[in-house]
Amino acid sequence: MTITTTSPLTEIDGRNLYYTFIAGGKRVIASQAELNRINVFPVNDGDTGTNLATTISSVIELLRPDRNYKVTAGRIAEAALMNARGNSGIIFAQFLYGLSLETESSATVNLRQFAESVQRAVRYVYEAVANPVEGTMLTVIKEWAEYLNASWHKFTDFNLFLTSSLAVLRKSLSETTSKLRILATAKVVDAGAKGFVLFVEGIIDYIRSRNVKELIQSKTVAPPLFIEELTIAETVNFRYCTEAIIKKCNIDHGKLSELLGSYGDSAVIAGSDELRRIHVHTNDPADLFSELRKHGLLTFQKADDMVRQSDTVHNRKWKIAPCGRFHL
């Protein structure tokens, strides 16, 4: 790709961060159909693109930027945690949360500060997932962070620095196919990982042009897309994709992870004790919600029926999909 001639971008403030988030988010939103189509892990229910797009669009619509980088990073993380959807959305929100916590308290960040905060944010992502699996979004974030932290000193411009990281991102993404058997069988890359790569690609395209007017003309998300087919079908062991927000959580992360594991799989725990965002696949969402109420204030809960979602994709007779969601 040809790099346009712009003045060097040596530091990023809160407004820069705001615009780059919109740019990256718009790229994911525009690609949600493709991400849904290749979604085969952890369950091929065809909603990774929609979940990421919904998570990101909520942040874009709610975010009030500040000129201070640390303040804006915190607002992005809070909005993402409050509105994250699905396994991929919550993992992405946890990355943003880790990034906000590990950002120095300053109005701007330079290349070193940015690279180091991304590197330190990786542990938050891995700690959030009960059983981290390589060959997913986790791996791509980790390998990207390692490159940034090892290479920042070679650059004086965010434009060139981030553009140089594309090769690492794309290589890491392509290797997800060989790291997970289900991806190799379907001959696709991991959908969540591709979503993260698209997000960074959108950021890079923006900082090369820095066309703010064009960027802010359309910030809203496209409606969720219904996908004609997925690559392969599989048995859903736990029927409900279950999510909740717990405020003032009085159970520590380890015990909460054990609790979720006793109800199902694909558990993700994001945020802090003040605000825990959880995700798990289970057959007993009502019982789980009842148990969670013992450990804090449950302010949000939902359960999506993945069996109906899968049937909609693989066995449907009509173009209109059933809702497959209930709130308790």
Q: Would you write up a description of this structure?
A:
The chain has 328 residues and is α+β, with helices and mostly antiparallel strands. It folds into 2 domains: 12-216, Serine Threonine Protein Phosphatase 5, Tetratricopeptide repeat, CATH 1.25.40.340; 240-326, Alpha-Beta Plaits, CATH 3.30.70. The protein is 55% helix and 13% strand. It has 15 helices and 7 strands. It has helices at residues 14-30, 32-37, 48-62, 69-83, 86-101, 111-128, 137-151, 158-164, 166-179, 181-186, 191-209, 212-216, 253-263, 285-292, 306-314; strands at 11-13, 108-110, 240-247, 264-272, 275-282, 297-305, 325-326. The longest helix has 19 residues, at 191-209. The protein is globular, with a radius of gyration of 19 Å. The termini are far apart. Mean pLDDT is 87; it is low at 1-5, 226-233 and 317-323.
Which features characterize this protein?
328 residues; alpha+beta; Serine Threonine Protein Phosphatase 5, Tetratricopeptide repeat; Alpha-Beta Plaits; 2 domains; five-stranded antiparallel beta sheet; two-stranded antiparallel ribbon; 15 helices; globular; disordered N terminus
SSE layout and pairing:
Layout: E1 11-13, H1 14-30, H2 32-37, H3 48-62, H4 69-83, H5 86-101, E2 108-110, H6 111-128, H7 137-151, H8 158-164, H9 166-179, H10 181-186, H11 191-209, H12 212-216, E3 240-247, H13 253-263, E4 264-272, E5 275-282, H14 285-292, E6 297-305, H15 306-314, E7 325-326
Antiparallel strand pairs: 1-2, 3-5, 3-6, 4-5, 6-7
Helix pairs in contact: 1-3, 1-4, 1-11, 3-4, 3-5, 4-5, 5-6, 6-7, 7-9, 7-11, 8-11, 9-11
